[in-house]
Specification:
Radius of gyration: 32 Å
Helix content: 40-55%
Strand order of the largest sheet: 6-5-7-8
Shape: elongated
Distance between the termini: 66 Å
Strand content: 5-15%
Number of domains: 4
Oligomer: single chain
Number of strands: 8
Order of helices and strands: HHHHHHEHHHEHHHHEEEHEHHEEH
Length: 540
C-alpha cells in the first residue's frame, strides 16, 4: 500500500502543478484573445510546463555535478553521469515544446514584424529570444562535454564534470534573466493591441513589383539562388568529408540571393508607417476628409485630386494624381506622416489640423484610390477574388435605431442600391418582387436615395409594397462616398459577407435588369469555399 501511495504522489503533484499553470495562463494575455482563447491558453500551459521542467532542473543538476566533481564525491559520480545524460535527452524535447508553443503564442500576441520591432512588448520578446539563444549555445556546449564524463576520473571525468557544472550554472543564470524579461512582458500590453512605432527608415514590400514590374525577374532569380543556398546548407549537415566546402558554398549562395532579391523590395518607411488609423474607414470620415481636402489641398491638387489645381503649375515637382491606384500601395501611416510633416513642396499640416482631421484626409485619399481601382469591377463577380474593401457607413431606417454596414459582416450579403426617382422606380419594384427569394439566400437590400430626402419611404411607396430597408438618415454621407466609385444616377454595389465590394452595376438611364442575373452573382458568392479574412484586416 505504501508503495502504491508513493507512486500516486508524483502524479498528484504533477496534476496540481498543471492546474496551477492553467490558472497562471488564465491570468495572462492569452485569456483576452478572441477567438481562439482555448488554443492560446493551451499553448501557454505547454510553454510554462516545458520551461518549468527545463529551467527547474538546471540548479539541481549543476549542484549535483559540482558535488560529484570533488574528490569526496566519487560515490555520486555514476549517478551524476546518468542524471546528466537523462536530463540532456529530456531537455531536448522540452526545448522543442518551448519553441513550438512560444512561436504560436508570439504569433497570437505580436502578429506582425511591425509589432515585433515597433512596440515595447515586441522588443522585450526580442530580448527574451536573444537570451534564449544564448542558453541554447550553452546547451550545445554541454552536449559536447557529456562524452568526457565517463573518462578517467582524475584527469578527464572530474574536470569535465566541473566544467559542465559551470556551464549548467551559467545556463540557469540566463534563465533567471529570461524570467525577469517575462515578468516585464506580463505587465506590458501585447504588441497586437499597441500602436507600433516603426524604428527603421525602410521596409520591405512586394507592392514595389506592381509599380516596377521589371524587377519581378530579378526578385525571382534572387529568391531561387537563396533557395539553392538553403538547400546546400541543409545538405552540408549530412556530409562529413565535404561539409565545410558545401557549407561555405551554401552560405555564399544564400548571401548572394538575399543581396539580389532585397533591393527591389525596399521602400521608404516612417515611424507611423504601420500605425493603425485612429479613425475608422467610414463614410462620415471620408466625407469630412473630402471637405478638408477642398479647403486645404485643392489649390494645388485640384478639386478632384488630379494634380491640376490653380497653383500646380508653379510647383516643382508638380502635385501627383492622388486618384491613381499607386496611392493604395502606401500604408495609411505613410500618408498620415506626409500630411503631418509635409513632403516638399507640400507643407506640413501637423500644426494646422488635429490628428482626427488628418486621419479624415487619409481616409478620403484611400477612398479615391479605391474608387480608381474599382474601375476593374464589373457587373459579375470574380469567384474567390475579394480585394476591395467597401467603406463602412451608418444609417437609419424610419424610427429604428442606427445600424452600420459592418454589422452585416459574417451574416449577410448586402446589395447597396443608390437610386434616383423617378427613373429608378421600376428597378426598385423588380427588387421588391425578388426580395423574398434574396432573403432566403441571405441577401439584404439597402436602398439609398441620391437626393438624401428624409421622406424616402413615403416617396417609394406609391406602387407595390417595398419591404426592404430604405435609408432615411445617413443617406448624404453614403451617397457622397459611393459616388466616388460611380457617378451614375442609379448604381448597385454587391458587397459580400466579409465586407468586400465584389460587383458594380451602374445605369445612367433605365436601370431595369433581369433579376436572374443578380441571383446568379449571389449564388457565386454563396458557393465560395474559402472565406477571406474580415475586411477590417485589409484596411491599412
Amino acid at each position: 500500500r505504501d508503495r502504491t501511495d508513493w507512486r500516486a504522489l508524483p502524479g498528484q503533484v504533477a496534476l496540481l502543478g498543471l492546474v496551477a499553470l492553467r490558472l497562471i495562463a488564465a491570468a495572462g494575455h492569452a485569456a483576452a484573445l478572441e477567438p481562439g482563447t482555448a488554443a492560446a491558453l493551451a499553448a501557454d500551459v505547454v510553454h510554462l510546463a516545458a520551461a518549468g521542467l527545463w529551467v527547474g532542473g538546471l540548479p539541481a543538476l549543476a549542484l549535483l555535478l559540482w558535488l560529484a566533481a570533488r574528490p569526496a564525491g566519487a560515490d555520486a559520480r555514476p549517478y551524476a553521469v546518468l542524471a546528466a545524460r537523462r536530463f540532456s535527452r529530456t531537455a531536448l524535447a522540452l526545448v522543442g515544446a518551448l519553441a513550438v508553443s512560444g512561436l504560436w503564442s508570439a504569433w497570437l500576441q505580436v502578429a506582425s514584424i511591425a509589432g515585433l520591432l515597433g512596440t515595447r512588448h515586441g522588443k522585450l520578446l526580442l530580448l527574451k529570444l536573444v537570451i534564449f539563444a544564448a542558453m541554447l549555445v550553452l546547451a550545445s556546449l554541454n552536449r559536447r562535454v557529456m562524452p568526457a564524463l565517463a573518462g578517467e576520473a582524475a584527469t578527464i571525468g572530474r574536470p569535465a564534470m566541473r566544467r559542465l557544472s559551470r556551464l549548467v550554472a551559467a545556463e540557469a543564470a540566463l534563465a533567471l534573466l529570461v524570467l525577469a524579461v517575462v515578468a516585464a512582458m506580463t505587465v506590458t500590453p501585447p504588441a497586437r493591441h499597441e500602436q507600433p512605432t516603426w524604428p527603421l527608415s525602410f521596409r520591405l514590400t512586394l507592392d514595389n513589383l506592381v509599380t516596377a514590374p521589371d524587377f519581378q525577374s530579378q526578385v525571382l532569380i534572387g529568391s531561387q539562388v537563396a533557395v539553392l543556398g538553403v538547400v546546400a546548407l541543409l545538405v552540408s549537415l549530412a556530409l562529413r568529408r565535404l561539409r565545410m566546402p558545401v557549407l561555405a558554398g551554401g552560405a555564399v549562395l544564400l548571401v548572394a540571393g538575399v543581396a539580389i532579391t532585397l533591393p527591389p523590395l525596399v521602400s521608404d518607411a516612417y515611424p507611423t508607417t504601420y500605425r493603425r488609423p485612429d479613425v475608422a474607414y467610414q463614410a462620415t470620415s471620408i466625407v469630412a476628409g473630402m471637405a478638408l481636402f477642398g479647403e486645404h489641398c485643392a489649390v494645388c491638387h485640384g478639386p478632384r485630386a488630379a494634380g491640376d489645381g490653380p497653383a500646380a503649375a508653379t510647383l516643382q515637382p508638380r502635385p501627383p494624381d492622388l486618384r491613381a491606384s499607386h496611392v493604395a500601395l502606401h500604408t495609411a501611416g505613410d500618408i498620415f506622416w506626409w500630411i503631418t510633416n509635409g513632403l516638399p513642396p507640400m507643407p506640413a499640416f501637423g500644426d494646422r489640423l488635429e490628428a482626427d482631421a488628418r486621419w479624415h484626409l487619409v481616409n478620403y485619399l484611400r477612398a479615391l484610390a479605391a474608387a480608381d481601382a474599382a474601375r476593374l469591377l464589373g457587373p459579375t463577380v470574380e469567384p474567390e477574388m475579394p480585394w476591395l474593401v467597401a467603406p463602412d457607413f451608418t444609417f437609419t431606417v424610419g424610427p429604428e435605431y442606427a445600424r452600420s454596414l459592418k454589422e452585416y459582416r459574417g451574416r449577410k450579403i448586402v446589395l447597396l442600391v443608390l437610386y434616383t426617382l423617378p427613373a429608378s422606380q421600376p428597378r426598385l419594384v423588380e427588387l421588391a418582387d425578388a426580395y423574398g427569394l434574396l432573403t432566403s439566400l441571405e441577401v439584404e437590400i439597402l436602398a439609398v436615395p441620391t437626393d438624401a430626402t428624409p421622406d424616402a419611404i413615403r416617396r417609394v411607396s406609391g406602387g407595390p409594397p417595398i419591404l426592404y430597408p430604405v435609408v432615411t438618415d445617413g443617406s448624404r454621407e453614403i451617397v457622397d462616398t459611393y459616388r466616388l466609385f460611380s457617378a451614375a444616377p442609379h448604381t448597385e454595389f454587391l458587397i459580400d459577407r466579409q465586407g468586400y465590394l465584389r460587383a458594380v452595376v451602374a445605369a445612367s438611364d433605365d436601370p431595369r435588369r433581369d433579376p436572374n442575373l443578380l441571383l446568379a452573382e449571389v449564388e457565386h458568392l454563396n458557393e465560395e469555399k474559402v472565406a477571406p479574412p474580415p475586411a477590417a484586416e485589409h484596411v491599412h
